[in-house]
Amino acid sequence: MPVFYARSFGACYNPGMQYADWISVATAWMWVIFIAVWAASALFAKKTAKRASLRWWLVRIIFIPIVIILARISGMKPGSFLLLYIEDPALRAIGAVLVLSGIALAIWARYHLGRNWGMPMSEKADAELVTAGPYAYIRHPIYAGIFLAVLGSALVFGILWVLVLAIYVGYFLVSVRKEDEIMARLFPDAYPAYKARTKKVIPGVW
Protein backbone atom coordinates (compact mmCIF):
# COMPACT_ATOMS: atom_id res chain seq x y z
CA MET A 1 0.00 0.00 0.00
CA PRO A 2 1.10 3.70 -0.20
CA VAL A 3 3.00 3.29 3.05
CA PHE A 4 6.06 2.63 0.87
CA TYR A 5 6.05 6.31 -0.05
CA ALA A 6 7.21 7.25 3.45
CA ARG A 7 10.72 5.85 3.37
CA SER A 8 11.20 6.23 7.10
CA PHE A 9 9.19 7.24 10.13
CA GLY A 10 11.67 10.07 10.62
CA ALA A 11 10.40 11.66 7.42
CA CYS A 12 7.21 12.52 9.27
CA TYR A 13 9.16 14.94 11.46
CA ASN A 14 11.31 16.62 8.82
CA PRO A 15 10.78 20.39 9.27
CA GLY A 16 11.89 21.02 5.69
CA MET A 17 9.22 18.81 4.20
CA GLN A 18 7.06 20.40 1.51
CA TYR A 19 3.29 20.73 1.91
CA ALA A 20 2.74 18.11 -0.81
CA ASP A 21 5.04 15.70 1.04
CA TRP A 22 3.01 16.10 4.21
CA ILE A 23 -0.09 15.15 2.21
CA SER A 24 1.67 12.01 0.98
CA VAL A 25 2.79 10.95 4.45
CA ALA A 26 -0.64 11.63 5.97
CA THR A 27 -2.30 9.62 3.21
CA ALA A 28 0.14 6.76 3.71
CA TRP A 29 -0.74 6.67 7.41
CA MET A 30 -4.44 6.53 6.53
CA TRP A 31 -3.74 3.30 4.65
CA VAL A 32 -1.69 1.98 7.57
CA ILE A 33 -4.63 2.59 9.93
CA PHE A 34 -7.03 1.00 7.45
CA ILE A 35 -4.91 -2.15 7.16
CA ALA A 36 -4.47 -2.36 10.95
CA VAL A 37 -8.22 -2.07 11.59
CA TRP A 38 -8.99 -4.61 8.87
CA ALA A 39 -6.48 -7.13 10.18
CA ALA A 40 -7.56 -6.73 13.81
CA SER A 41 -11.29 -7.03 13.12
CA ALA A 42 -10.75 -10.09 10.93
CA LEU A 43 -9.71 -12.00 14.06
CA PHE A 44 -13.28 -11.85 15.37
CA ALA A 45 -15.18 -12.77 12.19
CA LYS A 46 -17.48 -15.75 12.09
CA LYS A 47 -16.29 -19.02 10.65
CA THR A 48 -16.39 -19.19 6.87
CA ALA A 49 -18.94 -21.70 5.59
CA LYS A 50 -18.04 -21.47 1.91
CA ARG A 51 -15.10 -19.75 0.26
CA ALA A 52 -14.84 -18.18 -3.18
CA SER A 53 -13.91 -20.48 -6.04
CA LEU A 54 -10.29 -21.14 -6.96
CA ARG A 55 -10.37 -18.84 -9.98
CA TRP A 56 -11.13 -15.82 -7.79
CA TRP A 57 -8.34 -16.68 -5.40
CA LEU A 58 -6.05 -16.67 -8.44
CA VAL A 59 -7.31 -13.19 -9.35
CA ARG A 60 -6.43 -11.97 -5.86
CA ILE A 61 -2.99 -13.56 -6.07
CA ILE A 62 -2.36 -11.61 -9.27
CA PHE A 63 -3.94 -8.38 -8.01
CA ILE A 64 -1.99 -8.06 -4.74
CA PRO A 65 1.54 -8.03 -6.30
CA ILE A 66 0.40 -5.37 -8.79
CA VAL A 67 -0.76 -3.14 -5.94
CA ILE A 68 2.49 -3.68 -4.04
CA ILE A 69 4.63 -2.91 -7.11
CA LEU A 70 2.71 0.29 -7.82
CA ALA A 71 2.92 1.28 -4.17
CA ARG A 72 6.71 0.84 -4.34
CA ILE A 73 6.88 2.89 -7.53
CA SER A 74 4.99 5.60 -5.67
CA GLY A 75 8.17 6.15 -3.68
CA MET A 76 10.02 7.31 -6.81
CA LYS A 77 11.21 10.87 -7.13
CA PRO A 78 8.37 13.29 -7.98
CA GLY A 79 8.31 14.17 -11.65
CA SER A 80 9.23 10.69 -12.80
CA PHE A 81 7.98 10.01 -16.32
CA LEU A 82 6.67 6.60 -15.30
CA LEU A 83 4.88 7.92 -12.22
CA LEU A 84 3.15 10.85 -13.99
CA TYR A 85 3.19 12.55 -10.60
CA ILE A 86 0.53 15.21 -9.88
CA GLU A 87 2.25 18.32 -8.53
CA ASP A 88 -0.83 20.49 -7.95
CA PRO A 89 -1.17 20.69 -4.12
CA ALA A 90 -4.90 21.40 -4.39
CA LEU A 91 -5.56 18.22 -6.37
CA ARG A 92 -3.42 16.20 -4.01
CA ALA A 93 -5.30 17.64 -1.04
CA ILE A 94 -8.58 16.62 -2.70
CA GLY A 95 -7.08 13.16 -3.17
CA ALA A 96 -6.23 12.95 0.53
CA VAL A 97 -9.80 13.91 1.43
CA LEU A 98 -11.10 11.16 -0.88
CA VAL A 99 -8.79 8.63 0.75
CA LEU A 100 -9.94 9.70 4.22
CA SER A 101 -13.61 9.59 3.21
CA GLY A 102 -13.28 6.21 1.52
CA ILE A 103 -11.43 4.59 4.40
CA ALA A 104 -13.89 6.07 6.91
CA LEU A 105 -16.81 4.67 4.90
CA ALA A 106 -15.21 1.22 4.66
CA ILE A 107 -14.45 1.11 8.40
CA TRP A 108 -17.97 2.35 9.24
CA ALA A 109 -19.43 -0.46 7.12
CA ARG A 110 -17.05 -2.99 8.64
CA TYR A 111 -18.16 -1.91 12.12
CA HIS A 112 -21.81 -2.57 11.29
CA LEU A 113 -21.00 -5.92 9.69
CA GLY A 114 -19.34 -7.01 12.89
CA ARG A 115 -18.56 -10.72 12.90
CA ASN A 116 -20.47 -11.19 9.63
CA TRP A 117 -17.57 -9.80 7.58
CA GLY A 118 -15.85 -12.22 5.25
CA MET A 119 -13.63 -12.30 2.20
CA PRO A 120 -15.37 -11.22 -1.03
CA MET A 121 -17.73 -13.81 -2.53
CA SER A 122 -17.51 -16.08 0.51
CA GLU A 123 -20.27 -17.22 2.88
CA LYS A 124 -20.20 -17.03 6.66
CA ALA A 125 -21.68 -19.58 9.04
CA ASP A 126 -24.85 -18.24 10.71
CA ALA A 127 -24.85 -15.26 8.36
CA GLU A 128 -27.07 -12.27 9.11
CA LEU A 129 -28.51 -9.68 6.71
CA VAL A 130 -27.06 -6.35 7.87
CA THR A 131 -29.12 -3.28 6.95
CA ALA A 132 -27.84 -0.75 9.51
CA GLY A 133 -25.37 2.12 9.06
CA PRO A 134 -24.30 2.65 5.44
CA TYR A 135 -26.07 -0.59 4.51
CA ALA A 136 -29.36 1.26 4.94
CA TYR A 137 -28.50 3.19 1.75
CA ILE A 138 -26.13 1.06 -0.31
CA ARG A 139 -25.49 -2.68 -0.42
CA HIS A 140 -21.71 -2.60 -0.92
CA PRO A 141 -20.30 0.33 1.09
CA ILE A 142 -16.92 -1.34 1.65
CA TYR A 143 -16.34 -1.60 -2.09
CA ALA A 144 -17.50 2.02 -2.48
CA GLY A 145 -15.10 3.16 0.25
CA ILE A 146 -12.11 1.36 -1.21
CA PHE A 147 -12.95 2.78 -4.63
CA LEU A 148 -12.84 6.33 -3.22
CA ALA A 149 -9.59 5.59 -1.38
CA VAL A 150 -7.84 4.19 -4.47
CA LEU A 151 -9.11 7.09 -6.58
CA GLY A 152 -7.76 9.52 -4.00
CA SER A 153 -4.43 7.68 -3.96
CA ALA A 154 -4.15 8.25 -7.72
CA LEU A 155 -4.36 12.00 -7.07
CA VAL A 156 -1.90 11.91 -4.17
CA PHE A 157 0.71 9.43 -5.37
CA GLY A 158 0.45 9.46 -9.16
CA ILE A 159 -1.68 8.67 -12.18
CA LEU A 160 -0.16 5.19 -12.36
CA TRP A 161 -2.56 4.29 -9.55
CA VAL A 162 -5.35 4.54 -12.11
CA LEU A 163 -4.22 1.05 -13.17
CA VAL A 164 -5.04 -0.20 -9.66
CA LEU A 165 -8.38 1.55 -9.92
CA ALA A 166 -9.19 -0.08 -13.26
CA ILE A 167 -8.32 -3.55 -11.96
CA TYR A 168 -10.33 -2.95 -8.80
CA VAL A 169 -13.40 -1.78 -10.73
CA GLY A 170 -13.36 -4.95 -12.84
CA TYR A 171 -13.06 -7.13 -9.74
CA PHE A 172 -15.74 -5.08 -7.99
CA LEU A 173 -18.30 -5.52 -10.78
CA VAL A 174 -17.92 -9.28 -10.70
CA SER A 175 -17.94 -9.43 -6.88
CA VAL A 176 -21.09 -7.32 -6.58
CA ARG A 177 -23.01 -9.56 -8.95
CA LYS A 178 -21.81 -12.72 -7.24
CA GLU A 179 -22.47 -11.44 -3.72
CA ASP A 180 -25.98 -10.28 -4.64
CA GLU A 181 -26.65 -13.82 -5.86
CA ILE A 182 -25.31 -15.32 -2.63
CA MET A 183 -27.38 -13.00 -0.43
CA ALA A 184 -30.53 -13.64 -2.47
CA ARG A 185 -30.02 -17.37 -1.93
CA LEU A 186 -29.29 -17.04 1.81
CA PHE A 187 -32.15 -14.62 2.48
CA PRO A 188 -34.84 -15.37 -0.12
CA ASP A 189 -37.56 -13.58 1.84
CA ALA A 190 -35.80 -10.45 3.09
CA TYR A 191 -33.16 -9.72 0.44
CA PRO A 192 -35.42 -8.89 -2.54
CA ALA A 193 -37.15 -6.13 -0.57
CA TYR A 194 -33.82 -4.84 0.76
CA LYS A 195 -32.34 -4.85 -2.74
CA ALA A 196 -35.36 -2.96 -4.09
CA ARG A 197 -34.95 -0.07 -1.64
CA THR A 198 -31.16 0.30 -1.87
CA LYS A 199 -28.50 0.91 -4.53
CA LYS A 200 -25.23 -0.91 -5.13
CA VAL A 201 -22.72 1.82 -4.27
CA ILE A 202 -24.17 5.32 -4.83
CA PRO A 203 -27.29 6.23 -2.81
CA GLY A 204 -30.21 7.00 -5.07
CA VAL A 205 -28.14 6.55 -8.26
CA TRP A 206 -26.62 3.07 -8.82
Overview of this structure, please?
By secondary structure, the chain is mainly α. The chain has a single domain, classed as Four Helix Bundle (Hemerythrin (Met), subunit A) (Up-down Bundle). Helix content is 58%, strand content 2%. It is built from six helices and two strands, in the order αβααβααα. Strands 1-2 form a two-stranded antiparallel ribbon. Helix 1 runs parallel beside helix 3, helix 3 (89-113) runs antiparallel to helix 4 (141-157) and helix 4 packs antiparallel against helix 5 (161-186). The longest helix has 26 residues, at 161-186. Residues 1-16 and 73-83 have low confidence and may be disordered.
Question: What is the number of beta strands?
Answer: 2
CATH architecture label: Up-down Bundle
CATH domain topology: Four Helix Bundle (Hemerythrin (Met), subunit A)
Q: What best-fitting shape do the alpha-carbon axes yield?
A: elongated
Order of helices and strands, N to C? HEHHEHHH
Specify the number of helices.
Answer: 6
Q: Tags for this entry?
A:
single chain; 206 residues; mainly alpha; two-stranded antiparallel ribbon; 6 helices; disordered N terminus
Short description:
The protein has 206 residues and is mainly alpha-helical. Helices cover 58% and strands 2% of the residues. Mean pLDDT is 75; it is low at 1-16 and 73-83.
